[in-house]
Write a structure and sequence with these properties.
Helix content: 10-25%
Order of helices and strands: HEEHHEEEEHEHEEEEEHEHHEHEE
Distance between the termini: 53 Å
Shape: globular
Strand content: 15-25%
Strand order of the largest sheet: 8-7-6-5-4-3-16
Radius of gyration: 19 Å
Length: about 350
Amino acid sequence: MRFSIAVAVIVALTAWPSAPGMTTEPTHHTSQGFRNNYPTGWIRGSFWKWQWERWRKGLPPALPTAWHAATVTPDVAWLKNNRSERAITWVGHATFLLQVGGLNVLTDPHFTERASPFGFVGPKRLVPPLPALKDLPHIDAVVVSHNHYDHLDEGSVRHLAAQAGGSPRFFVPLGLKAWFAGKGIHDVVELDWWQSAAHEGVTFTLAPVQHWSARSPWDRNKTLWGGWRVERSDFSFFFCGDTGYSADFADIQHRLGPVDIAAIPIGAYEPRWFMQVMHVNPEEAVKIHRDLGAAHSIAMHWGTFVLTDEPIDEPPHKLATALRAADIPHERFRLMKHGETWRLE
């Protein structure tokens, strides 16, 4: 029983929204922290209602016996030597290695065994990170979307900060710089929504998405969240992080223009009555693809951890159905294998 309660609390920290600190101010800054641009209703006690339903139905579902994650052995030598060709590698979950403009950029780096504050309990990796931390090229920059444990992993960022050749520059939403400083990591740029910072010819812009933040029951929405646009004059990439569907994505295209490639979550969406506020399903992911004006998109946030109630192999099938319904060719919204590199030139 104690073990089950511990697991429930950990899942709460990665999946449970709180009531935003609503004020009469027209901005996302409030006296109690931050809020979304398009606040949505929430149900008090909904997390425990979800847990009760899971227990009653015997969820989360068991892994399908025939399911094995498709993986590719990364070409580590090529990745380490590449400084001229644009490429993107899906490490797993929300972690990508983007190589652009001679820079190696990581998104939401997570390389440890669990998405949890504890090493012995919590959502466990089903697929190892590909490439592993030790096989990465020197990382120049890291973008962090928010502070949930499956997106901001302390062990991973500590390792990156101590890499040979010096720490990468970490780009984070408002409020997270102090957390990094507490870990002895100081090459950190903290931004608000719509703010930008340049690093060696590449511009990083934090944009609003619909989500929330917390690393404990006492710090809900005290730090900001967002998606990242990474661009130079001839290329743009948008990393959604974690998000529910909202008008933010149409706002992003209106303000920043269309994007060459978007990384969009397609998993962790059931039950909809609870998860819809914070996690898109594949149908909504296709809407985001269109709202952003993305030439191409890549699916993420599925197949690495079991976080919610849908079968782990379901998101790709639902994505295929949604793309057909929207008359979008499947090659415009890619399903990459863990460890796969897409060479963009």
